[in-house]
Hints:
Helix content is 34%, strand content 16%. By secondary structure, the chain is α+β, with helices and mostly antiparallel strands. It has a domain at 85-126. It has a two-stranded antiparallel sheet with strand order 1-2. A two-stranded antiparallel ribbon has the order 3-4. Strands 5-6 form a two-stranded antiparallel sheet. The longest helix has 43 residues, at 2-44. The radius of gyration is 27 Å and the shape is elongated. 2-acetamido-2-deoxy-beta-D-glucopyranose (NAG) binds at residues 59-60, 69, 71-72.
Amino acid sequence: xxxxxxxxxxxxxxxxxxxxxxxxxxxxxxxxxxxxxxxxxxxxxxxxxxxxxxxxxxxxxxxxxxxxxxxxxxxxxxxxxxxxxxxxxxxxxxxxxxxxxxxxxxxxxxxxxxxxxxxxxxxxxx
Length: 126
Ligand SMILES: *[C@@H]1O[C@H](CO)[C@@H](O)[C@H](O)[C@H]1NC(C)=O
């Protein structure tokens, strides 16, 4: 009778020991899954352009088998392989100089108002 109790306790302990580690991999699963998916995206977007539309993708466009965002990617600005020259950034698919561009002053979408101009990446009143 006593040994049966011990056996039961042992079984309980084993169940606990099994269920505890089973919880932690579960909480890490989404991360692992995303990494797995993005690696697959890199490998297959030439064949399956739709993979670039999944959540966590770098962008919805496929260039050279890589998911990119052509509206902001300085190596694929507006179209695949279009590189922006040194010092320029890609805004809405166009290479612009953020130091002087009045619509993208300092960063994409930072528009200077009519009285100011973009000087060294800042909207300044001259
Ligand atoms: C591409 O970049 C633009 C500007 O940052 C952003 O609005 C858009 O959501 C991005 N698209 C994707 C698919 O990440």
